[in-house]
Amino acid sequence: MIRVRPVLTSVFAVLALHACQPSGQPGSVEPDRAAQVVYAPTNRPDVRGSRGAVSAGHPLAAQAGLQALHDGGNAVDAALTMAAVLAVVRPHMNGVGGDAFVFVWEAATREVHALNGSGRSGALATPDFFRGAGLDEVPERGGKAVSVPGAVAAWIDVHERFGTRDLTELLAPAIHYAREGFPVSARLAADIAAQGGPLNTAGKAQYMPGGAPPPVGSLFKNPALARTLERIAAHGKDGFYTGPVADRIARFVAGEGGHIRAADLAAHTSTWVDPLRAEYLGHDFLVFPPNTQGLAQLQLFTMARSHDLERQQRNSAPYLHTLIELKKLAFADRDRWAGDPEHMDLPVDQLLDPGYLGRRARLISPEMAAREVPPGIGDALPEPADTDDSGDTVYLTVVDADGNAVSWIQSLYAGFGSGLFEPETGVMLHNRGALYTLQDGHPNQVAPHTRPYHTLTPMMVLRDGDFAFTMGTPGGDSQPQTLIQIVNNLLVFGMSPQAAIEAPRFRSYGGVRVDMEDRMPAQSVARMRAMGHDIRLIPGWTATFGGAQMIMRDPESGTLVVGSDPRREAYGLAW
């Protein structure tokens, strides 16, 4: 089943009539006038630049990406540098043992290129493989949850097509941090403490020596991973998918009862795909097609066009209720149809048809939260299990001096993925295969060499056929919800990128359960509870609500504006 970062510049603020109104009571803002930005205090200053900008899920990665731009690299060179550093410094969230999806805006041709870097199941992966082991679903952890890691192939394929600097140069910062160590942050130590339970014995020895996370400020090293990264730098894909690294990983997964073998690793390929797109608020939003939940993102945007969100007012009860109920409709279709289009025909055109979505958008009750929502196309299947994951994923984005832009996401899925750390290679293996279903006839049913459903949904956004902004977030099921809230903050309610990201958010789960940051207006929360929403207020700034990042080209000045989420370790820099 579906279980579903140098130059800091002045504040990006233009005082508007409603600048000092509280968050739940905005005044009138023309929806597509992003230059009319509402002033709102932020935890972090807006970051602006004119020649390049980066944002990554860790300050060291952002610094390395900016340095790559300073050294003459383009957006793809900087993005690859950041992706590799993130694989070292956020080891529980992403790495060479995970998957990746990449958008590239090529300024010279005004084209968007999309690379699906997710891996597939092994040749042995049939429903009977799992049922024969006494299982009625794919386990969340362990060898059977491991599909082929696709991130490294994505790195190499994007670099071969668009990169300009030598791969050894681009991976050098990551290799340095893996071998020589990087300082452990308070956030990393807390994450390891909270998520390290499922680690195998080798993983606990690496990440929790003595039964506890490494001390804050200590240097954390992974020399085995440094050696693996050196092999990748020297041999490209062959350094990971064939030879000693691949052989060791294959033997290890087999020994853990998994379905991946050396031949499955050697056969892996990335796929260049055509993005899905939809118009919303005067912009064209591009997302990945299935096997991702990008479809649900576009459904949300299109259905939102049927409701006057500006008039409802930001974070009012009617506004929040509308978005939550539309999310339920989109997720019902997603859960019914998410799968690998290479293995099953999916009704994507029907699911994105504006007429169909207009009718769906009118199904929501304005006064009552729905407990169950069927899909609009096809018979309902057994409901997927709820997941309470915070989305252990990293996002990064770059825009260079020539206007090229990259929107890139990579992940292990759960914290520490499968829980399996292979000590000879230093590789933490993901558990994206846990998202397969054993349901007969479901598009996401496990089968040999099939990609699993993916929550990863980065975006590339255009306006009048030109680059407008990048955006993405970790957060599992919350990704489409987080992104539509930020987009509305930006384009409907006139907030700056940083303010739009920092504004309080909700996260809807199955049924009527909704988590909300406790900065939401109290009157909105009270009214929504009366409408049947089961609301849990979450204090502080937590990863429950994602960790969004974006780079926007200011439509008036042409400068680059960065937004980076303080809910995680994201950091933005520009020059």
Task: Explain how this protein is built.
The structure is a single chain. With 575 residues, the chain is of the alpha+beta class. It has a domain at 47-273 and 390-484. The protein has helices at residues 59-70, 75-89, 127-131, 151-162, 167-180, 186-195, 201-207, 223-235, 238-241, 243-255, 262-266, 294-304, 309-312, 317-337, 348-351, 354-361, 478-491, 497-502, 522-530; strands at residues 47-49, 53-56, 99-106, 111-117, 182-183, 219-220, 271-273, 276-280, 283-287, 392-399, 405-413, 421-422, 427-428, 459-463, 466-472, 506-508, 513-517, 534-538, 549-553, 560-564, 571-574. The strands form five sheets. A seven-stranded antiparallel β-sheet has the order 1-20-19-15-14-9-8. A seven-stranded antiparallel β-sheet has the order 7-4-3-11-10-2-21, covered by helices on one side. A three-stranded mixed β-sheet has the order 16-17-18. A hairpin with a 4-residue loop joins β3 and β4. α2 (75-89) packs antiparallel against α4 (151-162) and α12 (294-304) crosses α17 (478-491). The protein is globular and about 60 Å long.
